[in-house]
Amino acid sequence: MCTTACYDKALHDQAETMDGTYLPMQFLPFEEAKSNPMLANFVKYVGRDKADAFAAYGWVATIAFADAVKAVVATDGVNGLTRSALFTGIKTLTKFDADGMYGTVDPRQPQDLGVHAARAVQERTSSCGCGRQRPARSTASRRTP
To answer: Residue 87's domain spans which residues?
Structure first.
């Protein structure tokens, strides 16, 4: 098994070596761009040669941001967009899927976004992805929104 960090051009270049490797993904495979307009736009504007999992997550986060802004503007107008209002707008995204490019999630639920780091910090351990556990970093210097 490999994380989505493995999902890039190198995966295809090393197809024989990677044969039989499982890759859990939260977004549609780039090869299926014709099946989804949002994914097609992602591949078109990012570029097939630069498309990787990190770019996909950035794209999806930008779509979530835009949807939250639209929710705020719809209720409070363009002058109602504040930091606080944006957090309220994010709470309206209860069935977010980046127009079908991403598996449906509720951003209010960290486990739906795959944001396990926050839970790991709370539990004082984090996984390195290699089957071992290591102590979590201190959160003493972290700022909260």
So the answer is: 4-114
The number of folded domains in the chain is 1
4, 60 contact by CB (below 8 A) = no
Q: Which pTM was predicted?
A: 0.68
C-alpha radius of gyration, the chain, whole number: 18
| Sign of the four-CA dihedral 88, 89, 92, 93 | negative
Residues 70, 74: Cα–Cα separation, whole Å: 6
Q: What are 37's two structure tokens? A: 């307009």
Rounded-to-integer distance, Cα 110 and Cα 138, Å: 20
| Regions of the chain with pLDDT less than 70 | 1-6, 8-12, 110-145
